Amino acid sequence: MIFCKVESLPTWGGENYLCGGVDLMSNCCGNNTREINLKVKGMSCGHCKMAIEKAVNSLDGIKYVEVNLEDGLVKVKFDFSVIDEEKIQNAIKEEGYSVV
After folding, report:
1. What is the C-alpha to C-alpha distance for residues 96 and 25, in angstroms, rounded to an integer?
2. pLDDT at 15
3. At a CB cut-off of 8 Å and minimum separation 6, what does 89 contact?
4. Which of 28, 54, 56, 69 could hold 65 in an S-S bridge, CB 3.0 to 4.6 Å?
5. pLDDT score of 22
6. Can you tell me the distance from the alpha carbon of 50 to that of 33, in angstroms, rounded to the nearest whole number?
7. Distance of alpha carbon 23 from its chain centroid, rounded?
8. Residue 70: per-residue pLDDT
């Protein structure tokens, strides 16, 4: 998901997707930030939360990590030009948790 409000405006050739006046095809809002919410099993305590946050934050391109133990979710904002979702998931798995 890209953090931008997207408007669909009519053009001669179909639709043009704009974000703040910038064509989405040319890097929306001048950044490469995406947010994902990963469902993670096996988290049960503050240590689990700290382990996952530390592991994910150690990766290049990570901007923000939030672990919600109650919902079993890990929210991550990252620079997709530096890192992809698979590497983030692998960091969580290496700590002994399951990403579903």
Report:
1. 38
2. 42
3. 38, 99
4. 56
5. 40
6. 23
7. 21
8. 96
Query: Which structure tokens are listed for 98?
Result: 């399951």
Which CATH architecture describes the domain 32-99?
Answer: 2-Layer Sandwich (3.30)
Tokens in use for 63? 């901007």
With beta carbons less than 8 A apart as the criterion, state whether 99 and 87 touch: no
Average pLDDT per consecutive 10 residues, the chain (100 residues; last block may be shorter)? 37 42 44 94 96 98 97 97 97 97
Separation between Cα atoms, residue 76 and residue 53, nearest integer Å: 9
Q: What is the DSSP string of the chain?
A: -BSS--EEEEETTEEEEEETTEEGGGTGGG--EEEEEEEEES--SHHHHHHHHHHHHTSTTEEEEEEETTTTEEEEEEETTT--HHHHHHHHHHTT-EE-
Average pLDDT, the chain: 80
Domain with CATH 3.30.70.100 in the chain: 32-99
